Amino acid sequence: MKHLFKYISLFAVAVSLVACASNMMKPSSSQQITPPSKGKAKIVFMRDSFVASAISSEILEVKNGNLSLVGVLPNGNKIAFETTPGKKTFMAYGTAADFMTADVQAGKIYYVIVRPNWGTGGFAPTPVRADGSSEYNTSSADFKDWRDGTTLISQKPEAAAWFAGKKAEYQEIYKTYWARFRQKNAQELAERHLNPQDGVRY
Questions:
Q1: Rounded CA gap, 170 and 190, in Å?
Q2: Which of 190 and 9 is assigned the larger pLDDT?
Q3: What is the domain range of residue 95?
Q4: Dist. CA 199–CA 107, nearest whole Å
Q5: Which of 70, 137, 154, 181 has its CA 20 to 30 A from that of 194?
Q6: What is the pLDDT of residues 105-163, one digit of tens each?
Q7: How far apart are the first and last CA of the chain?
């Protein structure tokens, strides 16, 4: 019964967060994905699926258990996130949370497809490989549509204040779902890890 109440509470939080989050983004002034600044890497999070298309997915970066907002990602859109090189962890949240780890190099652009996860009801941030070693790769027939057929969006000025007011709720969601993610086996964790060689240079 205790677990049931916990899941009901998480679902109620999910409905509240999704309703508020959907208005925090705007189309970017330029739709071109530019190379990262000197000494930086860029990660492009993309969504392009009719499944769960009415639900927005919040993309968050996790640093030492602390969350920061990358952006809110509705279907048919993409977010270009510039960051420092090195190891990273990201959380995607719709009606459930899921994760991706990363190790990125300066001067490269990385691509991630945020896809519906049938197992959790949330969204799975999934690396797009540059070497064709997985179903999701830069040589696939779908990649051009993901990259070029989605709208580049960025945060509105009010997004920071909105997230500050909701951060405690997201932190609780993170604690619950991160513990589950860490129970995945080595192969499953590798499938959710963005490798240095997955980046491309233009």
A1: 25
A2: 190
A3: 2-198
A4: 9
A5: 154
A6: 999 999 999 998 876 778 999 999 999 889 999 999 899 999 999 999 999 999 999 99
A7: 54
What is the DSSP track for 55-92? S-EEEEEEETTEEEEEEEE-TTEEEEEEE-SEEEEEEE
Q: How far is CA 98 from CA 125, 137, 187, in A?
A: 7, 20, 16
CATH number at residue 30: 2.60.40.2890
- Encode pLDDT of 77-87 as tens digits: 999 999 999 99
- Angle at the Cα of 75 (from 9 to 141), degrees rounded to 5? 130
Picking from 93, 14, 97, 134, the residue whose alpha carbon sits closest to that of residue 111 is 134
How many C-alpha atoms does 81 have within 13 Å on its Cβ side? 24
Nearest to 178 by CA among 135, 122, 131: 122
| Model pTM score | 0.88
